[in-house]
Specification:
globular; 538 residues; mainly alpha; single chain
Length: 538
C-alpha cells in the first residue's frame, strides 16, 4: 500500500503537469496543430507499449522472486539481460519510426505534415525502454520511489521543453510547433533516465548485489548455479507476452480510430484542413480530459489486486467477495460524478480550458458529452480487470477488450458515414467498447468468484446522488452566468458546488456506509457527522 500511495501521488503530479502541457499547447497551436501532434503521439504509444508494459512487470516479478530466496546477483542478471533486450527493442523502434514516417502515414490522408512530429518523438523510443528496465528492477525490490521520482522528472522536463520549443517554432507554422512539442518527449525521457541511473549508481547496483550473494554463499544458503541469459530471456518473454497484448489493445484502438476518421471523412468529401481540425479536437482536446478520472480508478485497481490475490490464495471466499464488492462500488462512486459533470458542463468546460480557440472548443464539446458518459464504464473496466488479474484470469479482460474494440470499429465505421453524426460516431464507438468490456468483465467476475452486488447500494444510490448533483450544477451555473456573464467563474463555482452536493447526497442517502467511513483517515469524525442527519432523516 505504501508503494501504491507513492505511485498514486506521482500519478496526480504527472496528470497535473500533463494538463499544464496540453491546455496551453492547444491554445497555442490550435486544433490543426493538435491533430498533427496527436497523430505522432498515437503512433508513438503503439511502439512504446512493446517495451513499456509487459517487460517491466516481468522484470519486477522476477527480481522480487530472486530477492526473496536470497539470490540478489541473479536478480541483477535479470536486470542486465532485460536492459540489453530493451536496448535492442528501443533502437529498432526509434530507427523504424524515424526513417519510415512515409510508411506510417500512408493510411492517414491529409496528415502528411505529422511526419515532423513523428521524427521529433522517435528518439524517445530509444530512451524510455532503458528507463523502464531500471524502474522494473527497483519495483522488484519493492522500492517505488525511484520510479515515482523519474516519472515526475520526466514529465516536468517534457512539459518545459515541449512548450518552449513549440513556442519557438510557432512562427514557422503549426506543423513545426507540433513537432517541437513532440520533441519534449525525448528531453523528458533523457532527464528521467538520468535520474533513475543516478539513484542506481548511488545505491551501489551490481556491487551490493554481489556482496549480498557472496555473504549468502558463505553461509551455505546457496548451491545452484547462476541462471543462464537464455533462460532469463525466455522467462521474461513468457511473463511479458500476455501483459503486452492486453496493454496494446487501447493504443491499437486509437490507431484504428485515426485511420477510420481520416479515411471516412476524406471519402465524404471533407476538406483536408477540416479533417485535421476535427481529429485534433477529439484526440487533443477531449481525450486528455477523459483520462483524468483514471488517476483515481487506477489507484483503486492497483490496491485491489493484492487484496484479491491474497484472499484467493488463502481460499477466503468471504473476504474475496467483500473486496470485489467494495472495489466496484468505489469505482462507480468515482466514475458517476465525473461522467455527469462532463456531460452537464461539456461546452462550459471546453470554453474554460481553451478560450483562445473558442470555435474549436465549441466544436469539441459534443465529443466530451458523449465520451463523458463512457467514463462510468471505463472506471468499471479498470477495476474489474484488477479483480480478474488478482484471481489469475488475466487473459479474460484482454479478450473482452478486444471484443469491445471490434465493436468500436464497426460502430465508428458506420456512424461516421452519417453526415449529421460524423466524428461523433468515433466517440460513440469508444463508449460502445467500454460498455461491452465492462458488461463482459462483470459477468466473468461473477462467474469466477461468485461475487454478487447489491443493486440498490452499488448502482441506484450513487446514480441518484450523481443525478441530483448534475441538476444542482446546472442550476448554479445558469444562475451565476446570468448574474456575472462570465463562463470561467460560473463553471469553477458550479463544479465546487457539485462536489459538495454529491458528497452530501452520498451520506444522506446512505450510499456510503458507516463501516466504510471508519476505514478512512479521520473516519470516526466523518461517521459522527453523518450519523446525526441520517437519524433526523429517519
Amino acid at each position: 500500500m505504501q508503494g501504491a500511495v507513492v505511485l498514486a501521488a506521482a500519478g496526480v503530479i504527472i496528470k497535473a503537469l500533463g494538463a499544464v502541457f496540453k491546455i496551453p499547447l492547444g491554445n497555442m497551436i490550435g486544433d490543426t496543430g493538435m491533430g498533427y501532434y496527436q497523430t505522432a503521439y498515437t503512433i508513438y504509444m503503439i511502439f512504446l507499449v512493446l517495451s513499456n508494459s509487459g517487460i517491466p512487470v516481468a522484470i519486477s516479478r522476477m527480481v522480487s522472486e530472486r530477492i526473496a530466496v536470497g539470490r540478489p546477483l541473479d536478480a541483477y542478471r535479470v536486470f542486465r539481460v532485460s536492459f540489453i533486450l530493451l536496448l535492442f527493442i528501443g533502437f529498432a523502434s526509434a530507427l523504424f519510426c524515424f526513417f519510415k514516417t512515409d510508411f506510417l502515414l500512408h493510411y492517414f490522408p491529409n496528415m502528411e505534415k505529422a511526419a515532423y512530429s513523428i521524427k521529433a518523438i522517435a528518439p524517445a523510443l530509444l530512451i524510455v525502454p532503458l528507463m523502464a528496465a531500471y524502474r522494473g528492477y527497483f519495483q522488484g525490490m519493492q522500492d517505488m520511489r525511484p520510479t515515482a521520482n523519474s516519472q515526475v522528472t520526466e514529465q516536468f522536463f517534457r512539459v518545459a521543453a515541449g512548450l518552449g520549443v513549440a513556442l519557438y517554432l510557432l512562427p514557422r507554422g503549426e506543423a513545426f510547433a507540433a513537432a517541437g512539442a513532440a520533441a519534449g518527449a525525448a528531453v523528458g525521457a533523457a532527464a528521467g533516465l538520468l535520474t533513475v541511473m543516478t539513484i542506481y549508481a548511488l545505491g551501489g547496483g551490481k556491487r551490493n548485489a554481489a556482496q549480498a550473494e557472496a555473504h549468502a554463499r558463505a553461509g551455505g544458503g546457496l548451491s545452484a548455479a547462476p541462471e543462464s541469459a537464455c533462460g532469463i530471456l525466455l522467462r521474461i518473454c513468457l511473463i511479458a507476452a500476455p501483459i503486452t497484448i492486453g496493454a496494446s489493445v487501447m493504443p491499437i484502438m486509437n490507431f484504428i480510430d485515426l485511420a477510420i476518421i481520416t479515411n471516412r471523412l476524406a471519402d465524404l468529401g471533407w476538406a483536408a484542413e477540416e479533417v485535421r481540425k476535427t481529429y485534433g479536437q477529439l484526440a487533443g482536446f477531449v481525450n486528455p480530459l477523459i483520462n483524468l478520472p483514471q488517476i483515481l480508478t487506477q489507484a483503486v485497481a492497483m490496491s485491489l489486486v493484492p487484496a484479491v490475490a491474497a484472499a484467493h490464495k488463502q481460499n477466503d471466499t468471504a473476504f474475496l467477495r467483500h473486496n470485489i464488492q467494495l472495489g466496484l462500488r468505489t469505482a462507480i462512486l468515482i466514475g458517476l460524478p465525473c461522467a455527469f459533470g462532463m456531460m452537464v458542463l461539456s461546452e462550459e468546460i471546453m470554453l474554460l480550458l481553451y478560450p483562445a480557440v473558442r470555435d474549436a472548443a465549441l466544436s469539441a464539446a459534443p465529443f466530451l458529452f458523449i465520451l463523458g458518459f463512457g467514463v462510468i464504464f471505463l472506471s468499471m473496466v479498470q477495476t474489474l480487470t484488477g479483480v480478474l488479474q488478482g484471481v489469475g484470469r488475466q487473459m479474460i479482460p484482454v479478450r473482452n477488450l478486444c471484443i469491445g474494440a471490434a465493436a468500436k470499429v464497426a460502430v465508428t465505421w458506420t456512424l461516421i458515414a452519417i453526415p449529421a453524426v460524423n466524428v461523433k460516431g468515433a466517440a460513440a464507438g469508444t463508449v460502445t467498447a467500454y460498455i461491452l468490456a465492462a458488461v463482459l468483465n462483470l459477468a466473468a467476475v461473477r462467474r469466477h468468484t461468485g461475487a454478487r452486488f447489491d443493486l440498490k447500494l452499488t448502482y441506484v444510490k450513487p446514480f441518484l446522488a450523481a443525478l441530483v448533483m448534475g441538476a444542482a450544477v446546472f442550476a448554479v451555473y445558469t444562475a451565476l452566468y446570468l448574474l456575472t456573464g462570465g463562463n470561467a467563474v460560473a463553471t469553477v463555482i458550479s463544479v465546487a458546488v457539485g462536489v459538495v452536493v454529491y458528497a452530501a447526497m452520498l451520506f444522506l442517502g446512505g450510499a456510503v456506509t458507516e463501516e466504510e467511513l471508519l476505514l478512512l483517515p479521520g473516519g470516526r469524525r466523518l461517521a459522527r457527522a453523518v450519523r446525526a442527519p441520517q437519524r433526523r432523516q429517519r
